[in-house]
């Protein structure tokens, strides 16, 4: 099985490479290897490699910057997906595309199911939704959110840095979702590929949290292993206290029951609580020095 992975240097791209099954031949490219805004180069890459599967782990993820940079966000998050799908029509491969909880508006009274109506609030969300629309019936769409990984640029490492610099920080407490460890997400994606899945799936770690809850857990776990020296005071604040250019969904918890049912025969996929994975990630981060 030959697999082309985009976003090779990203959090998920790296995790996909580290967790790849032994029978997979991996071709991993980053922005330098293939600029997703270069339609001809992207098509040529897929035609020349003729992969059985393309995992699109690349995205324009600068949520606030996208509000003033929509053409580039759309080129990467939507148009490039269309090029991938159309080229795979010619080569015969399958596309596994990673999307986001930001395609929802946050008004649901329950966790979002894969077939729920989308209503994105931001340019980032709209362009990711447009990318989803290019997928074919035989492809796989995996939505996720709040992704983090050791060594990456993410909320966890931002928090540990701030906690080492400040005695007090404020963190938004009225946005609800669930953190997702990229390594666990990668394993779920490989699990779905191994089962020849088709359609839309959701994955985040088990449990529920606000960003404030997540920050408190980070402080406790990081302090326990010596990544931060003192526990700072963490104050819950509201979204209105911390205005941003892009509007975020206030509730973006994903219903992952379909995914977990599909992978039920393998307990390694998708059942751990987010705090368990946070603890594992922080130990990895400490080992990185």
From TrEMBL:
InterPro entries (alphabetical): dTDP_dehydrorham_reduct, NAD(P)-bd_dom_sf, RmlD-like-bd
Record bears the keyword NADP: yes
Keywords, comma-separated and alphabetical: NADP, Oxidoreductase
GO MF annotations, alphabetized: dTDP-4-dehydrorhamnose reductase activity
Cofactor remark from the record: Binds 1 Mg(2+) ion per monomer.
Stretches assigned to the RmlD-like substrate binding domain: 1-285
Listed cofactors: Mg(2+)
EC number: 1.1.1.133
SUPFAM superfamilies, sorted: NAD(P)-binding Rossmann-fold domains
Coiled coil: none
Enzymatic reactions: dTDP-beta-L-rhamnose + NADP(+) = dTDP-4-dehydro-beta-L-rhamnose + NADPH + H(+)
Pathway: Carbohydrate biosynthesis; dTDP-L-rhamnose biosynthesis
GO BP terms, alphabetized: dTDP-rhamnose biosynthetic process
Primary enzyme class: oxidoreductase
Domain of life of the native organism: Bacteria
Purpose of the protein: Catalyzes the reduction of dTDP-6-deoxy-L-lyxo-4-hexulose to yield dTDP-L-rhamnose.
Entry-linked NCBIfam families: rmlD
PANTHER family named in the record: DTDP-4-DEHYDRORHAMNOSE REDUCTASE, METHIONINE ADENOSYLTRANSFERASE 2 SUBUNIT BETA
Family: Belongs to the dTDP-4-dehydrorhamnose reductase family.
Protein name: dTDP-4-dehydrorhamnose reductase
Native source organism of the sequence: Erythrobacter insulae
Gene: rfbD
